[in-house]
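Supplementary Methods. Inverse-folding protocol.

Structures were first reduced to a discrete structure-token string of length 401. This string, shown here, constituted the complete conditioning input.
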């Protein structure tokens, strides 16, 4: 398998082997900094413990993000989306949306978890410096490159052409893309994440005060009644992701107990995920979504993704000794994959559109979807490994890996 080969050749560090009785493996600061890519771990601090299944959860999260875009492009982006799209293709898109859409909830949750289990206790200057260098800096670099091109609108004909405006127009476009994440659809989440980083000192202080537990519950529940606005950076979108990010910090503050709680309620979490999924399917069948300003789809999806997060964390913990090396590698390069998978999928689809004269059938959609998941991930890992050889740790400031 291509990812297995890349895992063997591109992985920055070999992970310390775990004994069968260990719940957690101790690793060096250097290994930990590689394992939790995107976090600045260069400051002096006590040795910390490494949860391999948390690292693997990041890989699980990015695969979900890549999957939703892969299926959508395979099913309907090869040709412009109009009334001629075959019913089975729209069914593929609906099914992938039910399963994979809103996967950024996983990322918000794991960001909170990793802050609480890895970064908490360090100076805020060190925390913000790490985020600036390892998340915001590559976002700016990638946005600059993406802004040099005119990318297709969602559900439009895939036509990628150079930007032809004046230098002043480009500066205005680039500045707007930085603020809004409009350079390409996946980028909208990074400005939201930047706000979450800025709120971290407040949210962490709330978690540390037991008398404010009621406020924690409210923050986690807010996404049920305040919906994210699609791909737009709005106050509603920020509030929506404050929920899982806060929950992640809360869980990470006492992760062992939370993990035991999820183990005991594993069946309940499965049932909750199933019920939320059934509710989303019901919305699709009756063709409704909003009740006033609240998107029921986003509310049910939030419940679904949190329940599935618990299920995934429990299963990854159970299988921790047998997790494949390629999943560790995917997790290590998660930010780079997030930044680059979108343009790669669009380029692949644009190339396919030159030779495909009609919408692909069901088998072709499935085959293209799988390819559009594996190929971009493999390409990004190989490219990131090359940049790491060339620039060392500074590569993180370019593409987040």
């Amino acid at each position: 398998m291509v990812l297995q080969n890349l895992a063997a050749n591109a992985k920055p560090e070999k992970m310390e082997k775990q004994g069968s009785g260990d719940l957690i493996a101790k690793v060096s600061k250097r290994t930990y900094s590689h394992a939790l890519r995107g976090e600045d771990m260069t400051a002096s601090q006590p040795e910390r413990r490494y949860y391999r299944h948390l690292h693997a959860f990041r890989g699980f999260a990015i695969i979900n993000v890549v999957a939703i875009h892969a299926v959508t492009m395979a099913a309907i982006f090869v040709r412009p989306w109009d009334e001629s799209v075959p019913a089975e293709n729209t069914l593929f898109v609906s099914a992938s949306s039910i399963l994979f859409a809103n996967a950024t909830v996983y990322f918000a949750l794991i960001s909170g978890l990793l802050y609480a289990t890895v970064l908490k206790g360090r100076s805020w200057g060190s925390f913000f410096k790490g985020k600036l260098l390892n998340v915001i800096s590559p976002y700016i670099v990638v946005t600059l490159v993406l802004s040099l091109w005119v990318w297709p609108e969602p559900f439009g004909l895939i036509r990628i052409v150079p930007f032809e405006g004046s230098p002043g127009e480009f500066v205005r476009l680039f500045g707007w893309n930085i603020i809004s994440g409009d350079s390409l659809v996946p980028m909208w989440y990074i400005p939201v994440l930047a706000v979450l980083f800025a709120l971290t000192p407040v949210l962490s202080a709330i978690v540390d005060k037991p008398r404010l537990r009621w406020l924690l519950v409210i923050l986690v529940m807010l996404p049920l009644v305040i919906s994210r606005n699609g791909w737009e950076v709005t106050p509603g979108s920020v509030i929506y992701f404050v929920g899982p990010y806060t929950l992640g910090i809360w869980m990470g503050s006492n992760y062992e107990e939370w993990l035991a709680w999820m183990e005991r309620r594993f069946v309940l979490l499965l049932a909750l995920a199933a019920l939320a999924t059934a509710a989303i399917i019901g919305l699709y069948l009756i063709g409704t979504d909003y009740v006033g300003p609240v998107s029921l789809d986003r509310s049910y999806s939030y419940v679904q993704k949190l329940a599935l997060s618990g299920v995934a964390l429990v299963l990854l913990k159970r299988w921790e000794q047998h997790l494949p090396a390629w999943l560790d590698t995917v997790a290590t390069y998660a930010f780079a994959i997030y930044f680059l998978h979108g343009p790669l999928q669009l380029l692949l689809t644009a190339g396919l559109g030159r030779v495909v004269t009609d919408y692909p059938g069901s088998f072709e959609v499935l085959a293209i979807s799988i390819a559009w998941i594996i190929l971009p991930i493999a390409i990004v890992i190989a490219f990131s490994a090359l940049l790491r050889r060339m620039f060392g740790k500074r590569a993180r400031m370019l593409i987040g890996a």
